[in-house]
Task: structure prediction
Amino acid sequence: MAIVGAGYTGLWTAYYLAKADPALRIVVLEARTAGFGASGRNGGWCSALFPVSSRRLASLPGSNRDAAIELHRAMQATVNEIGLVTAAEGIDCDYHKGGTIVLARTPTQLARARAEVAAAHDWGPGDLRLLTPAEVAAKVRATKVLGATFTPHCAAIHPGKLVRGLAAVVERLGVTIHENTPVTAIEPGRAITPYGVLRADVVVRATEGFTPGLTGDVRTIAPVYSLMVATEPLDDATWDRIGLADRPTFSDHRHLIIYGQRTADGRLAFGGRGAPYHFGSRIKPSYDEAPRVFAALRATLRDLFEGLDGVTFTHAWGGALGVPRDWCPSVALDRGSGLAWAGGYVGDGVSTANLAGRTLTDLILGHDTGLVRLPWVGHRSRRWEPEPVRWFGINAGLRAMTIADTEERLTGRDSRIARLMAPLLGH
Result:
C-alpha cells in the first residue's frame, strides 16, 4: 500500500490498515514532514461538523434521508473514536471533550441559530441545543450575547501533537514514512517521485490542499487559506472573566467563519477565513502570513471578550485547506485501477480524516461495513473552473461573506447576498 501525504488522512489510513492486517507493507510518502500541512496547523476542533448539510447529503446519487443521518451519527462517533485511540496509544494531544458553543450576537445570528437547531432536530439525533444568555454565561462570558447553540460533540486538541504522535505510532506498527519525498504524479499502481517510482497494489491520494501540485489535479481541489493567532498564556483573573473552564471550542453565527479554543497551556488560539485564494491554486510559505487578516483576527477576539486590550499575541500562522467544487468531501476506491482518495474537508478535517481512514481501510480490504455505505463514499465532485474564472469566483465568494456580515451588522436584517451565496457554500 502506498499512501501519498502524511497528514491526518494518510496517517489514519496507515494506522487502521496496519492494525487490521500487520502483514501489509505500507509506505507513506510526504513532501515535507509529517503534519506539515493543515493537519499540523489547524484550530484543533475535533468535531462532528461536516461541510455540507444533511439535506444536501440526502440529495446525492444513491443517498437518502436515513443515509444522511447515518453519516451524521458516524461523525459524532468519530469524535469519541479519536479520544479512545489517542488514550490507548499514548498520544498526548491535549484531548478534552468540552463541546462547541456558537454565539449569536445579533438578531440575524440568533435567527440562524434557531433555524440550525430546528434543522438538527429534523435531520439528526436532535442534540444541538439553543442556549439563553444566562446559559451561555455559564460556559463563556462573551460580549453582546443574545443566545448560542451548543453541541457536546467536539473535543479541543493540539493538532501538532496529534499528527506527530500518530506518525510515531504508525512507525511503531511497521509503517515506513519517507519524509522530504514529494510525489509529482499518481498513476495506477505507481507514485512518481524525483527519486524514483514507488509501485504498489493500491495508491491512496491523501494530499488535501496540496492536491493541485499533482499532475492532472490542478482543478480537483482549491487550496483556500485560513489564518490563526494565539495569545500568551493568560492569568487566572483573565480566565475568570472569560470562562471557557471546560474548554469548549467557540465561534459565532457570522458568515465568514471564525473559530477558537482555550488551549491546555492557557492561551486563546483563534482563527478565521479572510485570506485570498491565490491564482493558479498556488501555495507558498509567504501566503501563510497576511498582516491585514492577523490584525482583523486580533480585533475580533478583543471584540468577543472584554479585558484583552493588554494581552500580548505571541503567535500568528496560516495554511491551506482543501475545498472541492461542491464543498462535499469524498472517500473512494477505484478497484480496477487501485487508486484511492479521501479529502476535500473544507476545514472540518480533524475528525473527518479519521472516518476517512477507517472507511478506506474497509474499502481496500473488502470489508462490507456500514462505513462503506455512507453517502460520501464514491462521491465525485466536478472539477473547478479554469483560471481566471476560479480565482474570480472563489475570491468573490470570500468577499461576499465579509460584505454580508457588514450588511447585517449595519441593517440588522438578514443579508440578501448571503442567501444568494448559500447554495454555492454547501447549504
